[in-house]
Queue: 3 jobs
Job 1
Amino acid sequence: MKPLVDPFGRAITYLRVSVTDRCDLRCIYCMKERMRFLPRDELLTLEELDRIAAAFVARGVRRLRFTGGEPLVRRGFIDLLHAVSRHLRNGALDEMLVTTNGVQLQAFAEPLARAGIKRINVSLDSLDHATFARISRRDRLNEVLAGIDAAKAAGLKVKINTVALKHDNAHEITDLIQWAHARGFDMTLIETMPMGEIDADRTSQFHSLAKVREDLSAFWTLTDLPDRTGGPARYVRVEETGGRLGFITPLTHNFCEGCSRVRLTCTGKLYLCLGQEANADLRTPLRECADDGPLQAAIEAAIMRRPKGHDFRIERLARPASERHMSVTGG
Ligand code: SAM
Ligand code: SF4
């Protein structure tokens, strides 16, 4: 089948799949304390998720990242991975990845490895119990740390994701980087993005990574690395720790020209750009017909409407640029 290429010549090789909007944490930048989650019948079933993934793999997607919400709270998630791993075995897919908050990783590390996962991203915003509990609104740091140990023991390559928050963890960023690099983990810092209604004020939490980089450069040597992932991260090597450090700065850096990724929500909406509302409903063509013809046509038509770039602006941080939560779209 013809590979997917958008009107700007960008090949679509990376799909993020949100398998649920539910979560066992309530991070302040991501959710409200009281979330109204989607009714279950709106969610794609595991079979439907598998079918959509296969449709994209057939059109040239080489990497699939499963995310959420929290993917490990979706019942049957490991079965889904086992099913999708057939594309790894036949060479159509290079990699399946998972992004998790780590809370349930102690139990799931081995099953993830057995299902064909080699690398995971674990979100960790603080190593301090009180700070972790304040940011995630849940006192579950011990479980996350035990989960990270279990992932390492299961042979999974771990990358730590940390959202930089001015008032909560900015002072801890150096410690977090040292902690991660000492364990052989890559680390990526993320700027807060204006997605979805939350209880907190985002402008007061925004912490510029340009400033973080400048601060780190005062005592560390940061060497730019050419590594690109087809996404918004730029990487450096911290010479003193020997570890890799990524910066995801959607508000201060335009990363769109090489963007190869699209995102599927757990209800079957395909978002063509993280920062734009442009989306397409894939659930209807999927449910309408057992044959993949209408689904493929809907995917093709969506990709042809892909916008050139995102529309995040720092001055608009106070109001969400996007109605949807990251937990629905998949971070
Ligand atoms: N629950 C999993 C987790 O936390 O890793 C997977 C989903 S979460 C939405 C994926 C990533 O998005 C996490 O690293 C999280 O910190 C990040 N994230 C969520 N909301 C964000 C926001 N408004 N701005 C920036 N990053 C955000
Ligand atoms: Fe849950 Fe991840 Fe959102 Fe935190 S960032 S509330 S762990 S989905």
Note: Residues 46-58 form the longest helix (13 residues).
Job 2
Amino acid sequence: MTLPLRIAVPSKGRLASPTTQLLRDAGIAVPGDDRRLLVPVEEQGIEILLARTDDIPTLIRDGAADIGVAGCNQLLEHGSDGIETLVELGFGACRLVLAVPNASTITSSALLSGSRIATSHPNVLAAYLEANAIAASVVTLSGSIELAPTIGAADAICDLVSTGETLRQNSLRMIGEVMRSQAVLLARVQTTPDPRIAVLQTAVESVLAARPKRYLMLNAPDAALDAIIALLPGLDAPTILPLARTDMHAVHAVVDAAELPRLLHPLKEAGASGLLVLPIEHLIP
Ligand code: AMP
């Protein structure tokens, strides 16, 4: 009997809701209001393991899960041996940066030698310091990193930021970037030959590819057909279908959602009618 494929999903925190949404869009039945942390979805041959995001790389590496989602900063921190990154998911974007109090005389990361740097990413920071020949000491804290300089626990910090607002609120100034991160779909290297991994990866990739796209349908009078087609962006030729009436054709095209606001009016002006814009659930280019 084949064992169920175990998928580790962040149970709470920043990556929980976008991950659950993505997997559901990909057709995976991630449970909603379930108190259990290991939920079998028998009809799909999977188990959902709800876990702390920070633990997910370790769970995958040790074989407690086959596949899962975490930040790539967390993957590097906990060791990526035996783990393959299948897909960059585009959410959870952030940067691991070095920062000092506004009043500090340190103006760049090269000047951090001799200082104490507080972080919850000791391994990534140590590798960065070694690679850049910076002789600083690492103070490992699990939270409230921004407070460390104020309370005298460190001279600088190495922390995750997305907008930089938390740094500003704590009178801290960025002096360097250690890495950029985003959420990633991870799999255990030993499990990747399992065809169910490729099936899941394709489902997830097709959802990500579809999200920024829309399916545009319109009717074009034959006299305006060329002008209307010329307005449509993209390399792929649109689909042209004959209509029951003889002087018009239907035009279908996949377009960027971001292009639509500036596209609709010229299409209408060119004579298009019956315009419909539909979401796309899956797209494989
Ligand atoms: P959690 O602690 O479960 O909320 O997840 C934290 C993960 O979310 C981090 O390891 C990053 O990969 C990601 N993330 C994205 N933006 C930020 C941010 N501004 N601060 C902290 N983590 C972030």
Note: Residues 17 and 266 are 38 Å apart (CA to CA).
Job 3
Amino acid sequence: MITELPLQNLPNANQGLEAVFQAYGDFMFVVDEEGTILEQKSGDVLQLNISAQKNIHRKIQDLLPFEAGRQIVDGLSDLRAKKIAAQVEFSVSNISGKSWYESRLIPSVNRQVIVFIRDITKYKQSEEKIKIQLDQMAALRSIDLAITSGIDLTQTLSMILDYTRNHLAVDAASVLLLNLQNQRLEFAAGAGFWTAALQHTQLQIGEGLAGQAVQKRRVVHVPNLKTRKTDLLRSPFFGRENFMEYYAIPLIAKGEVLGVLEIFHRSTLSADQHWTNFLHTLAGQAAIAIDSAMMFKNLQYTNDELTLAYDKTIEGWSRALDLRDKETEHHTRRVTDLTLRLAQRMNIPDSELTHIRRGAILHDIGKVAMPDGILFKPGPLTDEEWVIMRRHPLIAVEILKPISYLIPALPIPRSHHEKWDGSGYPNGLAGEDIPLAARLFAFADVYDALTSDRPYRRAWSQAAALEYIRENSGTHLDPNIVSLFIRMMTE
Ligand code: C2E
Ligand code: SIN
Ligand code: SIN
Ligand code: FE
Ligand code: FE
């Protein structure tokens, strides 16, 4: 059985609508094609300064702020042309800020139009907030990338300062780094300054506002620099900057203070929770950038030290070899210099030259395994002695192979006795199968051996040595390099 409700207990349609407008603060107008108001329902009448009732027969565009009225008129003409609902958006500024409205124009009977106006300020504000947050996240991501890609510190800091200025809307910002040697805070990067006032900043810990932030490991905030006597004023141009509000944020990574981020604004900043959070995030990023740059620098330094130590070691080995074989003393240094000069003329890149230098220094290290009776024999070697002597390149490889940083230097020790026509040792390589470094080195080695005294013969003249090299072009030596070498030796 259906219960029949008494009719008067049902809200009529009109009352229901009224309730909706009261609840949501929307406006509704029924207008004719020209915007003349025929009917009006208003929620929060204060919002747009529209009075609740007395607007019948007035034009809707006259009730609204000028720009909003213009939009509505455009909407009405759109509607006349296309007969479909139109939508416009407008904002109104007043003392309490900016409000946003959305208006929908819906065609009704008898060429009438229903105009709804709704306050969408809250929606617009959160949209704006989300956009800002997305921008900030993108900024942080870019900073992360800069840090991990190892871009140099000054560049990374400049980038962080640009983001600080743009996203926190501050006039100027700078970073001072703590110099561990003299324990002073020194200017490292700045953005937004009119003068060079702060570029020579050098503060002791505890000195000045920045020094205090570092000493106390706390943010120092000065709402108005102009009413406060600070050390900043000692800088001759600082007054011209006309700064008002100031923050100093200590930059701390892994518990160590690495520097300080300073924020300067020429008027009052409106810092809310979100602003402060982002400031601290940026300061954290700056600290990480500084820390990782310092770690990289230390690593580089350690690496340089290690390389230097290794190079000293291999020079030591080669000197030990020279000491044993007095007659070839300085041979190593001379062939190394000659090989590098030749390589430079061939425009071989510097990174390669390092390996060529090491390879040349170590080329005959395998001779440590040659018995004195063979190495110092005053006459020609027998076949058996040659078998042993020809092992010196592979002995060098065995000695050097376990040292990973010498692997790129191995072509010269391994292949310096290969010949262009394939008749050399230890592998009988021919032509360009012989590594270029070894082909270059062979010129220097043969030239210097021939022009030096050996236990088995006296030194040749330079002319005789060059003649030998010319004659052996294409058999022993790379024919494409011969003329370059001879030109280099006769210049
Ligand atoms: P090394 O004395 O430093 O000679 C290096 C290379 O220069 C030699 O490689 C060879 O290509 C060239 N060279 C040096 N001296 C002469 C020479 O008098 N005539 C000619 N045509 N080329 C010369 P190679 O031949 O593979 O020799 C490698 C190493 O074997 C030499 O280094 C040296 O320590 C030793 N050796 C070579 N020949 C003799 C020799 O007749 N008696 C002795 N005791 N040792 C020799
Ligand atoms: C050494 O100095 O003993 C090696 C140089 C050479 O004979 O090639
Ligand atoms: C090369 O051979 O690879 C360049 C120099 C030369 O022609 O030998
Ligand atoms: Fe050799
Ligand atoms: Fe040699």
Note: Residues 363-364, 392, 416-417 surround fe (iii) ion (ligand 4) (CB under 6 Å).
